[in-house]
Please model this.
Amino acid sequence: MIRYLFVPEVEPGRGSGHLVRCLELSRLLPASAFLIPAARQDELRRRYPQLADSRLFATLPRFATLPGGELPLVIFDRMQLDEAMVREVLPVAIPVAIDARGKGLRLVPLVVDLLPRLTSHTAWDAANRNAPEFLPQPEHRRPAAAGPLPANAKVLVSFGGEDAAGLGARLAARGHLARLLPKAEVSLLSGPLAERPAGLPAGWRPLEPVPCLREELHRYDLVITSFGLTAHEARSAGCRVLLCNPTTYHQRLAERAGFVSALKGVGTLAAFRKALARLEYLTADAPAINLTVKTGLPGLATWLQALPKTTPCACPGCRSIGNPVIARFPDQTYFSCQDCGLDYLHSFSIDATSYDESYFFTDYQKQYGKTYLDDFEHIKAMGQSRLDCLERLAGGRSLAAGLSRHRAQGASPNPRLPPAAGPSGPAESPLAGRRLLDVGCAYGPFLAAAAECGITACGTDISPGAVAHVHASLGFPAVAGDIRTLGVAELGGPFDIVSLWYVIEHFPDLDRVLARLSELLVPGGWLAMATPSGEGISARRDQIAFLRNSPADHFTIWNPSRVARLLSRYGLELRHVRVTGHHPERFPGVLGYRALGSLSAALSRRFGLGDTFELYAVKTADHHSEQN
Model:
């Protein structure tokens, strides 16, 4: 059984820090294994004895079923991550990237940076979490010091496990240290994959690899290295740190993190002298990243273990994989499905929303200034408007929302809907006698509106308190429970109408829910629902802010222009979309001014820029998905 599969960077010329970190993490995470190309396995086992006891695979292994429906984590700790690697993992595991770069990140749900990165230019290239507190922390520290280095300073030169750029040998050959610190005791540490230098200057001595370098760093006054883990560990150990970076990219990273550098490579003698002078004014205990909590790799291991691992990395509506990231936040990543058009959330939050009485009273009042029951009549009036729309779509007479059950023959108030039909004078609602199930009925305002239409209405809600109120105060039949687990017969179905008002977005397993909704409808039955719009003015003005402010329990964001294809998968034919939630004040620039509110409102209605919408669809076929 494998719970954690590490895919470290082991390509020649790219250092060994990624592999070393994965080896340390694997000792903290049970049921770990490694994915390493076959051509590299023998050499790495020889150079890194810790790999001797690890399970190594050359190709993606077949994962066994984990308890509780959990999926394994595949942890990419690489300089470059390509899309092909991620696509191979997505059907069977959850990919996580640590300090990784490359286009493969656009498919990864969780990206963690322990080391700082340069400015991200795309949503997918940013990290969900910047976590320097997870950097390995040495237990041993030296006292803070300032001023010139001592004449007999102890200096460690270490350029990682490989030193592909040969910086150690170049620094020795240039003689900078001999000129500037002639009495210093210099130790050159060659990593497991690095070539040993043929000869060293006077005052230099070679060091063989040590099991845990960071616990030896406190012995040195000065550590000369390149940007990476050793630089951060040396600074945490209280050492002065001078960087010689192999590339301009590493140099820019070093500057961003506040390190002193001798520019690219080992630099000139003048640049080296200037860098050493700068170190005199730095105290070793004043790093660029100030941390109040330093948990190190054990903290990272604990965090990885606590992540929810039961949600596959697939679109909840059509189950397609390999969709691109459109936004990242600390515990959330949003994707856009290229197949069915949904935007959807992959959440790593361990806090679940509770739909108890506080949801309808305390939480509702905070958002709207009144409790749900105080708002009952207003919500009921919106329900009457929705029933009016549904009536006209069914080809009968319209209801005068909130005033009468009947309407004389005439023009429709909504030009996108057909006019009311039939002889002049009062007519019975064409919905009368039909059976309706309101999913997420709450305290029953839509049930009350439907009953006034002559509809036989019943509801279901996961809140027992809400269902009890519907029974006791309104007299409607209702069932407490989850529609995903309640059977059709338990709910009293099938039905002529199934409604969900701002409910559908709360289901992480949307495919299962849509299949159940189709099953609950008779042939020719109507699905009516409302949900936030991903094409409204708020999303169009600033999609990142819109997604950041989206409630944590909204797992899908629907786009009105793209819903038809998704519904058709479940035997539902879209008949009408009504855009609602028009907010002129949310328009950018002068259009958001109150004085231009009428113009902005007209534009919002003309171009469908409301922040919510309703859809009405008819069941035309039984649902036969690929999954069922």
Q: What stands out?
A: Residues 284-292, 396-426 have pLDDT under 50 and may be disordered. DSSP finds 20 helices and 24 strands in the chain.
